[in-house]
Amino acid sequence: MKNKLTRHVLAAAAAGLMSASVLAGCGGAAGSGSSDKTSGGASSLKPVTLTFWSCGDKASAQDEVLAAFCEKYKDKLNIDKIEFNYVSFGDYENKMTSLVAGGDNFDGCFVADWMLYSKMANKGAFLKLNDLLTQYAPDLYKDYQDNGVVEACSIDGQMVALPWINKKSSKPILLFRKDLADQYGVDYSHLDTIEDIDAFLEEAHEKIPNITTFESGFPRGNTYSDVLAIMNCKYEMDMLNYHMFTDNFDTTLVPVEQTEMFKEAVTWMKKWYDEGIVSKNELSETDTKEFANGKTFCSVGLEEYAAKGKYGFNVSGAELGWAEPYADNKFRFDSPLNNAFAINKNAANPERVLMLLNLLDTDEEAYDMFMYGIEGKTYVSESDGSIGYPDGQDSSNSTYLDWFRWPFLRSKFEKPSGDNTKEVMEKNNEWLSKSSLVVAPLTGFNPDTSPIKTQLAQRDQLYDEEGKLLLAGIIEGNDIDAAIQKYIDDQKAAGLDDIQKYLQEQADKFAK
Length: 512
Prior knowledge:
The chain is an alpha/beta fold. Among the domains are: 20-166 and 336-372, Periplasmic binding protein-like II (D-Maltodextrin-Binding Protein, domain 2, 3-Layer(aba) Sandwich), CATH 3.40.190; 173-235 and 261-332, Periplasmic binding protein-like II (D-Maltodextrin-Binding Protein, domain 2). It is 38% helix and 12% strand. The chain is built from 19 helices and 17 strands. Strand 15 and strand 16 (387-388) form a beta hairpin. Helix 14 (350-362) crosses helix 15. The longest helix is centred in the last third of the chain and has 19 residues, at 453-471. The radius of gyration is 23 Å and the shape is globular. The two termini are 31 Å apart.
């Protein structure tokens, strides 16, 4: 996910009993030994190294913290080392796909409904977890059951990902450089509709020199387009992010390209592309932090930035402004899969991963150390129970506190920390209580798609080749209606009818 909306995430884990032959078939038992037991203490466990993959950048104190964690909980887990490997958001999917295809025995990785999960889960890349959860992470499994997230993370009745249990919505929020708007006299008093946004971008483009006016979202985490996400708000259609299908929160699936909101998104983007409001090189841009790096005036992000009133700018004097278009319109809560963790089908140590995750779900002291680090070195405990930066550290130079830990978040243990202060958490919770934010009927919809895998591959490829160009505002011949109709016709020729029929059948079953 190109983090605007992200640039965030992670979740947690599972357990259950498996026979030695099943574990061998997973490619996982050899590394840890299928004789591992949760009741025998460290003496019955072989020492192992756990290897994880995630997006983002490695925290400078991560190795030190995790080494101390492994030593402290050696009697419970007998983990010698937890090895975290990081890949940039833009390269993550390709890296993980190639690792699994090559039979690598890494233990687990970050996944999300917007990153990797659908592509990999339906190819059988992740370990089936129900039995393992029962044996090795029974407390965590009960938490999943009590919170009603099992189905959202299951395929054919088997959990294949370990979600976080946190309330969140990725409703798009407009972010802009308030310092520049104030300096050059750009009016931001009304940003309620897409027409307001257009007028705002026009004025900023005219007045503010030497900067791209709007970063429109490629590559990024809204899967398809930030502008299309804003249209989801306007038209109150579910931002399902599933192979370019949507619905009116009624489980009746419609290809996105056949909706009026798609046409409007393309129309706005063409206007802004032609006027130079968005970069002509948007599709080839590799900097995933353009807004933070001061290259763009306006972007799209999450409400959490608005609650904090700040952004991780790498520009001196930069100040955040924000607005919520269509503030009272219906929008979905994120799926539990918005930040999750999956165990590789070839994992060397699946049982030990689940034991670790169960510990983090039941032991607050272990959770605090894994998530916040070493007290006095990577964080300090404040008198109000919050977690603060040590002297000399803040969000710009934190050695550990702000690492990409989302998949492991547990609301029952989560504390105000760093920039996520008690006040910010209260603002987030107040925003999340809005009646316009709803649980979509197809939250977690991710059926077995093997019967239509060829057609889906063609659909996704056509999006990359044609749909993405449309949503970037690049229209050959300048006839928007003709360009969209060609895309619709090409999708139909590639098997759209088969896809829609099959997915609708699966959606109807899921809804029941």
